Amino acid sequence: xxxxxxxxxxxxxxxxxxxxxxxxxxxxxxxxxxxxxxxxxxxxxxxxxxxxxxxxxxxxxxxxxxxxxxxxxxxxxxxxxxxxxxxxxxxxxxxxxxxxxxxxxxxxxxxxxxxxxxxxxxxxxxxxxxxxxxxxxxxxxxxxxxxxxxxxxxxxxxxxxxxxxxxxxxxxxxxxxxxxxxxxxxxxxxxxxxxxxxxxxxxxxxxxxxxxxxxxxxxxxxxxxxxxxxxxxxxxxxxxxxxxxxxxxxxxxxxxxxxxxxxxxxxxxxxxxxxxxxxxxxxxxxxxxxxxxxxxxxxxxxxxxxxxxxxxxxxxxxxxxxxxxxxxxxxxxxxxxxxxxxxxxxxxxxxxxxxxxxxxxxxxxxxxxxxxxxxxxxxxxxxxxxxxxxxxxxxxxxxxxxxxxxxxxxxxxxxxxxxxxxxxxxxxxxxxxxxxxxxxxxxxxxxxxxxxxxxxxxx
Length: 459
Hints:
single chain, alpha/beta, Rossmann fold, five-stranded mixed beta sheet, 8 helices, 18 strands
């Protein structure tokens, strides 16, 4: 049998019968969207199709005809149709499963499963689910300020320029940390892209990333570094517009394979809204509400999750940023504080506002985000049943050892579990390693993961 390390998983199956259900998801459409946007349009009513008012002018709609879409296995192998009203139908995923990679001879199973008649396994190989990560970086005028240990947030808000030219700015620290994070992804199974806001020194956002998604190799690292080095802080903080366009780009981008993520880094509060007026409190609140109640939901349905990092200066937006991370599927703790979307209480996101050493905590946060995005997640073949799956690990050719099934929140779990669908129900098409097993997989290239179908789960 073929064995794979880290990026591949051998799937042992006693019965490959059964079919994959059609996915029945309805991702957002932005066909026709493009170009720079100065501010956001008036929002369409909840449930409306199209581009969520992310560009100046008429909201974009899909082009009549068929287009590819993403299925629950993370692959671009479904089809959705845009009808004559320019509205998208559900993503239709292929029924059935390939048996490509199935071996004729089973590998060994862990001691707990040996000798059981229902573990007379065949083998199936499948690639680890890749990741597409679009970084959305705040380069508003306040990023030119020093960090709070040198220049207080209040002083920066009054005069957004560096108080001590001999000390690094928030922007310089962010660029340095990002370069390190990007370098750490080199050679892996992730594609990375980069967007910034504002793009025009005011409230500009752009539907096309500054650096498009690409494998993290020498050329991509050079493009990312060049783009960041050429940018200087200026303008407002159009968080909502930048995030909405990032969602739309990931949904449209044919090369955004596997699990898809937006990583937002900001040092401020939404200051542009739909009217481009930072003093229009109601308009700013409506923009935030639209992102949280409509756009994040549509992004999740299109398999896009949202990480949020709040730099010094974002204190007043803690509640909003916390809610964005929670609804975006990346809460640091399932029991995190949320709900104060117009205030400064919340900790579901990476809140870096309270630590004096911004450079250190930002590097740490980016490392955690990268690790979470490159999740220990693998698709299962057809035939996986919720009550008849096991996962085992072996290292450097050693005998396999089963790991426990742990259905608790992955942030605190120590074992394996099925992935969750958007509604919270079990997704038997994917398994996820959490805690020590995931750490082992990431830290030791010789580790091999086997998913065994047909046997009651070891607890």
